[in-house]
Structure formats: structure tokens, C-alpha cells
Amino acid sequence: MRLPEGGALLSSKRSVKQSGGADKHSFAQRGLLLVLAAGALATSAAGSGAGHAGKVAAVCWLGSVVYIWLWIGKDRRERFFKKCEAVATIMKNYLDGCQVSQLPANKIDSRGPLKEGLPPLSILPDPPAWVRKAAEERTGTGYALRVNRAFRRCGLLKDEGERIEVISVQSGPAAARVTVSLPDGLRLTRLQHMTSDLASAFGVESLQVTPGMHAGSASLIIAYKNRLPVVLRTILESEEFEEFLGRSELPMVVGVNDIGEPIMIDLVSVRHLLVAGTTGSGKSWFINEVLVTLLLSRGPDVLSLVLIDPKRVELSQYRGFPHTITVATETAQAVAALESLVKEMERRYTIFEQAGVKNIQQYWQRTGDRSIGYIVGVIDELADLMSTARKEVEVLIQRLTQLARAAGIHMIVATQRPSVDVITGVIKSNLPSRVVFQLISGPDYRTVLNVDQDLKLRGKGDGVALLEGHAGLVRFQSPGIGANDNDADLAVSKIKDFWVNSGHKTNPVHIAEAAVEGREQHNTAGETGENSKLRAAPGPDMVRLPDFPEVSGELPGGESIEYGNPPEAESEEIRKFKIIMAQAWQDAVEAEMDQITAPSIRSLRERMNIKQERVMELIDLLIREGWIQAPPVPKKPYLIVAGENTLKNYL
Ligand SMILES: Nc1ncnc2c1ncn2[C@@H]1O[C@H](COP(=O)(O)OP(=O)(O)OP(=O)(O)O)[C@@H](O)[C@H]1O
Ligand SMILES: [Mg+2]
Question: What sign for the dihedral angle of Cα 347, 350, 352, 357?
């Protein structure tokens, strides 16, 4: 079957979005109106030839069309146009001669809420027209022609009638993956030796050839010179996100990779997140899209926010959300907010102890009590805080990042300066998951990511991520909520209106008075009495909130619940790997070596009796856990940096 080239998430979405509801005079709309007009003319013509009864039928027909048209509403009309447009694209590609193996995996459009009771996605802005246009140009038509022309120019097609079939095209902000099926006798290795010729024949800067997913196929990865921005709505409307929402607790969109595949994580499974990047690199935009994603996915009964914004302007728009406990802007408030989080964590641990459970998920499962929800704490600019209250802040962040996860408290900490005076060893080792935007120099990347290269990120949301539970670095483009700050602010205020009017119950969270600055009186219509708002009673200590239900000694059991992708547990294999590292450390200490280095990859492979890829995965894991560090010079052994006490546990 011949279908559109845009076989992937964003490619097809964009080509559909390109002609979405924003363009009132799109091809589909004009076509449809033409059909309606023709229908009306034909009916009235038939009616005029059929006497009085025919005329009445024609008028009724016209009246019903107009009535249905008005009745279905703007949103449905736009959705209908989009579907028409998708069909038009299919026809266009059919005529272009492009073969695609499968339909786009994602839905054409949802526009409704992600789930019943959540704000509708139509609150978010559509991609701007120029982005839709550029995306369509990249994904739309013409690849079949271009591939065949380039292959012929490179002498890869012998006979006149021989043709290369394009199986699918997947396009993202930085590249397109065009998968083609190779004719008999044309081998992948031959193509791989000819990448420069193919790039020149395509007229692009760089091109890579990789094996395709099907036998006898190859993928051409064509890099674009300019990166395209991505908007959040495109990702949230995808089926991938909808499915992810169902199996994650605190869903977050990191961005899309070069060819447009979404990168999504559950904040619960990565514990906490460190966001680094020079000024203007996209940290605040990232934090904003993360908060908006959370606010579109979780109600205030499940999620509370503690926001620390020393710059005062980045997070103020979240005041007034029923989710928001506080937006602290002064150093004293920020320290008090962090202290409150630590105390809330301790309070929860006491409750868990009484209930005989280890963490929040087990607590919910055993007691059925959901009055303790998740709290996400955000610090947008750690450097500012560290410069004014380093001692207190470091200790508090250390406590939270070490212990708060089990209590359902997760931190997102952003900083411009990844230098060791801001990201101290203590903070770094407790924030193993990192999102990094453009940094000033290679050494900065090393501080945050332990990689020995200048990644040359381009700013404006171009980033790399190192995520707990995921091997290696992944490059991504983070989405903006809209094309500019105004669009984003408007969307945030609409989401706020939605929640304020929703009548959702807010979760009681302890917060110290000192952390509260002009706290909003939340309009939580569903609440009454003591529960009706977050309280800040006078006094330096925690405020007394409603007691938690008493939990009897005998607790109902239950199936274990899967929460996202839990980080790799300490298996026998990991333990053995750590024992080898600890022994290497002990040998080096006894031999009074200057540098304590890990055994070579080869030696690790042989001693563990595993493949090199698995060794590299375990090395990645140990880097994330702060056990080892990448060598300062390439091709040298890794350095063992874990503390003496940790290492001695494995001897
Ligand atoms: N994901 C993105 N897509 C497109 N443009 C972006 C993106 N992220 C940032 N930008 C652009 O870069 C500008 C600066 O971004 P942002 O305010 O997030 O930087 P920052 O890293 O927080 O800087 P600072 O450290 O100075 O606060 C934005 O106003 C926007 O124009
Ligand atoms: Mg910022």
C-alpha cells in the first residue's frame, strides 16, 4: 500500500499540523467548501427540476448542512479539516511514488485532555506557521525522487528501469531518517563507503548510512543545517506520550532526538534532575515545559510544587495554582522552603515507619490512603542560592537528594555555572540524572557529564541528557511551550484557570511560614474546613496539618506496582563489578599509587565473563553512581573516585 512518507511521530504530526486549524483557508477547507457548494448546487438544480417537493428537499438539505456545520463546533471542524489534510497528504505522496510500509504510529490529533478531568491540550499553542512549513518541507514529498536521482548519479542503479523504494521517512529537528529497500546485489557496505558521494548527490552537508529495520533495507540519515524548534503540544498529542502517561507517575518530556523521536522520562524513576547550561541556553524554558507537562498530567490531589526562583521572574506565573505551595524568591524564603521539604520528608518517614512501609508507593498500596502526594521541588538557579547561603543550601539539598525520593519528593535543580563551587561533589553525586544545555567550554561538560569532549551544543534547547536507568548520553531538542514567552505565559494562565475552577482537592503539605511569600489563597472549591487550603500558621516551625489516618498493624497486602522504569537494582552482577573496582582501589592504595585507576575494559570483560557492551553499561552505571570517572585523557583507564567507606563495603 502506498502511504505518506512521514512514518514517524513528529514528521507526520508536523505535516498534518502544517495545515491545521490555524490556516482558515487551507487546502482541505477550500476543498470541503467546494464539495459542499457543489452538493448544494446539484441539490437545488435537482430540486428545481423536481417541482415543489424537490425544492423543499434542497432547502432542508442545505439547512441541515449549515446546522451540522455550526453544531459540531470549531474544535471538531478543525479536527475534521486535519483529517482531510492527512488524506490529501496520503494522496499527494501516492502520486509522488513513495512507498511507506506502515501508517504513522501516532494519532492525527487529539486536542482533548490527556485524560478525563485534565486540562485540554488545545490550551497549548500550535507550532508557528513557519515551523509547520519547514517541517512539512522536510517530511512531505519528494524523497523517492531525490533518493533515486542521487543513487543514479552515484552509479548505484544499473538499469534504466531499476528503482529504489522509500520505505519510510522519519524527520525531526536536526535530521531525517529515510529508510530504503536496496535492490538485489547492492550491499550496505558499498553505500557506507560512498557516504560523501551520496551527501554531495543529495546536496546536504552530511549523510550517514545505517542498516534498516527490515532485511535488505538501509537507512540514510540526512543532517539538516538548521535545527527546527519543537513545540510541546506536538509531543503531548502523540500516542507515545498518551501511553507513557498511563505507565508513569510524574511524566516529563525531555525533548525529541535528532530524527524526532520523543524522549520521555518519569521523574520518579530518575529520582532528581540536575539541569545545567550557560545563560540563554534554555534551562528556564525546559523547566517551564516540564512544569506545564506535569500540570497538564496531574491534579493538585496528586502533585504539589515548591518553586524556588531567585531571579524572581521565571516561575512567578505558577503562583495561584492549587498545586503550588510556594514560589520562594528571597534567599531566606528559599532556605525555609528547603527546610520545610526536609521536615515534610521526615514527617512522611515517620508515617511510613508506623505503617511498616518503605516508600510512598508501598504506603498507597498497603493503606489505600492517597492523602500524601508527590512534591516536586524546583530551584531555578542554584548558583544564586549557593553564593548567598552555601552552607545551609548544600546540606539541605544533600539531604533531600539522598533521601526524599522514597517520600515522594523529587528535586529539579538548575544552574548556569557547573563549576565545583556550585555543583559540589556532594550535590553532584546525589544528582546522577542530568540534562545539559550549551556550556561555555569543554571542561564544563566534563564537570557535569564526565565526558571528555566539547559537545558543541548550539543553545536554544539543544541539549544532551544522562539519565539514570538509561545507558549513555542522548542528544535532544527540548520543546518550547510556544513560540515565545507570551504564548507560554498565556498557556500557563489558561491551565491555572482550569485548575482553579476544577474544584480539585489540594494535598495537605507542611510548609514553614518563612517560606511563604504572599501565598495565594487557592480556589479549591471541593475543599472545606481544615483541609481547605495550604496553611501557614505563625511560628518558625512546621504548621500543624490534619492528622493522617491511623494505620493498624495488620496491613492488607497487594501486588507490587510498577512505577516507570525503576533504576537498575544492585544485582549480583553489579555487586561483582563493584567488588572488582574495590579490589583495584585496595591494590592501588597498598601500592601507594598516585592515581587510582579501574582495571582495563578488556580485563573487566574477562573477569566478569560478559560482553564489552555490558561492561560499558556497567561503567555508565558506576559513573552515574559517582563510583568512577571518565579518564581526563581519552584511551586511559577510568578513575576510581568512590569514597573509602563505600569501597570498603565491597571488600
Ligand atoms: N527549547 C527552546 N526552543 C526554542 N527556543 C528556545 C528554547 N529554549 C530557549 N530558547 C530561547 O532562548 C532564550 C533563553 O532561554 P532561557 O530563558 O530558558 O535561558 P536560560 O538558560 O534559563 O538562561 P538564564 O540562565 O540566563 O536564565 C528564550 O527566550 C528563547 O528565545
Ligand atoms: Mg533562566
Answer: positive
CA of 277 to the centre of ligand 1 (A): 10
Q: Determine whether the shortest distance from the Cβ of 460 to ligand 1 is under 6 A.
A: yes
Mean pLDDT of the chain: 77
Task: Kindly state if the Cβ of 415 falls inside 6 Å of ligand 1.
Answer: no
Segments of the chain scoring below 50 in pLDDT: 1-27, 95-110, 517-568
Q: Ligand 2 centroid to 282 CA: how many Å?
A: 7
Kindly give the distance from the C-alpha atom of residue 431 to the centroid of ligand 1, in angstroms, as a whole number: 22
One domain for residues 157 and 272: no
Is residue 327 located within the same domain as residue 420? yes
Residue 346 in any domain: the answer is yes
Q: Residue 40's pLDDT is what? A: 62
Q: Are residues 398 and 462 in the same domain?
A: yes
Q: Is the CB of 277 under 6 A from ligand 1?
A: yes
Q: Are residues 325 and 179 in the same domain?
A: no
The pLDDT score that the predictor gives to residue 430 is 86
Q: With beta carbons less than 8 A apart as the criterion, state whether 13 and 121 touch.
A: no
Nearest to 234 by CA among 194, 265, 261: 261
Ligand 1 contact via 429 beta carbon (within 6 Å): no
The answer to whether residues 454 and 593 belong to one domain is: no
For residue 32, is it within any domain? no
Q: Give the domain range for residue 211.
A: 9-15+75-223
Any ligand 1 atom below 6 A from CB of 438: no
Closest Cα to atom 27 of ligand 1: 279
- 389 and 340 assigned to the same domain: yes
Task: Tell me, using a 6 A CB cutoff, whether residue 280 lines ligand 1.
Answer: yes
d(CA 602, CA 642): 22
Residue 480 included in any domain: yes
pLDDT reported for residue 77: 75
Q: Return the pLDDT at 465.
A: 93
Q: Which ligand is nearest to the CA of 463?
A: 1
For ligand 1, say whether the CB of 288 is within 6 Å of any of its atoms: no
User: What is the reported pLDDT for 41?
Assistant: 65
Domain end position, chosen among 501, 532, 563: 532
Q: Is residue 243 part of a domain?
A: no
What is the whole-number distance in angstroms between the Cα of residue 416 and the centre of ligand 2? 8
Ligand 1 center to residue 229 CA distance, Å? 12
pLDDT for res 38: 65
Cα 305 to averaged position of ligand 2 atoms, centre (Å): 18
Nearest to 286 by CA among 223, 230, 340: 230
255 Cα nearest atom in ligand 1? 1
Structural domain count of the chain:
3
Same domain, 458 and 324: yes
Place of cell 544533600: 398
- Residue 383 belongs to a domain with what CATH number? 3.40.50.300
Ligand nearest to the CA of 230: 1
* Ligand 2 centroid, distance to 284 Cα (angstroms): 4
Count other C-beta atoms under 10 Å from residue 622's C-beta.
21
CA dist 616 and 622 (Å) reads: 10
What is the per-residue DSSP string for 365-416? Answer: HHH----S-EEEEEEE-HHHHHHHHHHHHHHHHHHHHHHGGGGTEEEEEEES
Alpha-carbon separation of residue 523 from 300, 504, 506, 528, 583 (angstroms) = 12, 9, 10, 11, 59
pLDDT of amino acid 100: 34
Ligand 1, closest atom to CA 285? 18
Tell me the C-alpha distance between 651 and 648, whole Å: 5
